[in-house]
Amino acid sequence: DHAPVVLEESDDEKIRPMLDEEDEEEYKLYQAKISEEIAEAAKIKAKLLLEQSNYTNTSQSVSNAKKEGEQPNKRPDSLNIDSLLRLFKSDFFDSWIGISYLFRYTSPGVHDYLCNQLYTMPDEDIEFYLIELCTMLVHSRFSSTALEKFILDKCKQSVHFALLVNWLFCSSIVGTTPVAQTSEALQSKCEIAAVNGTLDQTQVSSLLELDHCNESASDLREMQSQGTLRTYSVVSENAGTPIMPSSKPHAEKPIMKTRSESEPSLTSLRDSFDSITSRALEKLDRCDYFYKIIHFVEDLGKISDMLRTVPVQFRQKALVREMKKVNQSFHAGIYLPLWEANANHYCILRLAAEDVIVLKSRERVPFILLFEAVSSDECCSSHTVHQIAKSCAETIREHNEESAKKTEENQSKNAQNDTESTTNSDENETPDNEQEQKQEDTEDTTTKVCVEAKPLPADDSEPNYKNSPFGEPFAKKQERIRATSPYGSMEGWHLRSVIIKYGDDCKQEYLALQLIGQFKKIFTAANLPLYVRPYRILVNSPDSGIIETITDAISIDGLKKFYSTERQVTLREHFLKFYVDPDSRAYKLAVRNFVESLAGYSIVCYLLQIKDRHNGNILIDSEGHLVHIDFGFMLTNSPGSINAENVPFKFTQEYMELMGGPNGSMFSYFKGLMRCGYLEVRKHSEKIISLVEIMSIDNTMPCFAGAQNAAELLRERFNLTMTEGQVDIFLDTIIEQSYDSWRTRYYDRFQYMTNNILF
């Protein structure tokens, strides 16, 4: 009944010749043995891969979960090695993927591979994710030392990175915890790497008794302060013999013995000595430059701390006096690594002591510091910035000597003229040629200064800006200081402004601004006109930082106090006063800037749950943009731990009034921007969430100190399962919830009653 079974010959049987029974049996045993060896080798290889990588195949993890009676993960956190390699070698691989997978997978194999990829990433990307790399390292997540080696290599390569890494490690040294001990050890290694640079860590030659190539940074620092750091002299041209290094100023030359033919020639000895000497001097220059910047920042923090003991009414004068003292012993040529690694490097010439400003604070004394600087052609991350600084210092020294010489000559001429005038009264009528020449030079210098005009308002004359709530425009201030500066004629001269903040942990502020910077990248890549302003910040220690100043801006609280009328001025009234004509292009452009910044910060404040949004923490600039500052409460923490501002974002009645009401075109524009921006950031939600996940391992930050999972709550706010239609309904709902919320009104009133912050 059954169909006959047809047996087909296998390919092996077709190829293999006919064998007798004995040979056939032997052949089968041979084949079986080979199969066993192949299977055993495959098992050993799989076992080794699992031990080295801790990865499991997705199907294997599901089957194991079924055996153990557990629910398989719907979203597995691991991939097999082949899949990872395909991802890492694909065109989709970028810096963000590298950093996020470096955090997710801690096995030595993939960790080393990804750390090697870090060397190929641009400096601006490494700088952007530097706090994540340092945080992962100080929390000892990896058994491999590849990440530590990479960070120390960056410190050797660039003083810019060495300073940033040094301060980030320093900010984690709190108490005697294992993290603090690890951070202290890494900070010491960072200093050694920064000082040594590209020098070899081992003794290069036995010619010299001591060349300091193996000294630690702390030893070099102590030797430098004690004056025991050995100096090196060039080869003596007369005797043709190298002069040995010595800490004594009049050390005797060593007696050269007769060389045999087997000894190296004098030329090779001289070349070797010259090489070692130049490299040692290079190391000393880096050491000097590195520690001058460290000491300068420490001195600024001490001044801010000292001002806390000064009565409030005398703090401004005390600050000016202290800045003048700093100028007297200032090391020209240093800089602050506050701006991007790929930006042009600059050298600080001197501090603008008369223009420093003490900021209002209840417990601390932050202040605005302005300094004159000159730009160079090198980028900040260049390995030669210390040489540029040395050259700049020489130029400044020569400039000061020439100025002093001219001053002495002018004084002697004036004294001679005064003597002659007593004998000849007719000479008093002679015109002062020097004064005329000085006036002509001043006019020429002023003419050469090219400063961009402030876009808004169009009329930027002196009477207007003196009566402006924004005060003197930064461009005008730069022009004024340059006209009176002895270095104003130098090419590349410019003015910079920073805020010195002492007594606050700025690490959470750093994280908030990094996240806002990520939002800005997403908006810019999608060509969306949403505006956010992620200003730069340096974290110098657990309780200090340096912040980039937002120029030509004032807090909304300060804006309302500036007009000082019996009734508080609304934002619309300010726009009418400042831009005058509501039909003018300047007014309409300012309102549009306001709406674009309001939409951008509304999305950011909702997703990151940024709180404490009173009018002292919201700035408005001269172009109409809103800029949020002070991010001490975000993600999971709130003022007083009661979450009084339990609304998606701040959206007051005066915001709506400025946009022309709920039926106005600007409000429709605002809702359209909210929709486009929210949908766009949802596409890149992991770029935001991954940064929060990595930084959440540092539970010293207030936003991670609670029991709540900040990353998971953030993921929920992205509403990734919603359709676009559902997103539209959701956005309308949160806008309605936020508009003129009683919670916002009462929190503003609370701040007014307790801190006199107007609303």
From TrEMBL:
Region (Disordered), start-end ranges: 241-261, 399-447
Recorded superkingdom: Eukaryota
Molecular function, one GO term: 1-phosphatidylinositol 4-kinase activity
Protein name: 1-phosphatidylinositol 4-kinase
One Pfam assignment: PI4KB-PIK1_PIK
Gene Ontology CC annotation, any one: membrane
Catalytic activity reported: a 1,2-diacyl-sn-glycero-3-phospho-(1D-myo-inositol) + ATP = a 1,2-diacyl-sn-glycero-3-phospho-(1D-myo-inositol 4-phosphate) + ADP + H(+)
Basic and acidic residues bias: start-end ranges: 249-261, 399-411
CDD domains, per database record: PI4Kc_III_beta
UniProt lineage: Eukaryota, Amoebozoa, Discosea, Flabellinia, Vannellidae
InterPro entries according to UniProt: ARM-type_fold, Kinase-like_dom_sf, PI3/4_kinase, PI3/4_kinase_cat_dom, PI3/4_kinase_cat_sf, PI3/4_kinase_CS, PI3K_accessory_dom, PI3K_accessory_sf
EC number(s) reported in the record: 2.7.1.67
Protein's GO biological process: phosphatidylinositol phosphate biosynthetic process; phosphatidylinositol-mediated signaling
Enzyme class: transferase
Keywords assigned: Kinase, Transferase
Domain PI3K/PI4K catalytic: 475-743
Domain PIK helical: residue ranges: 1-192
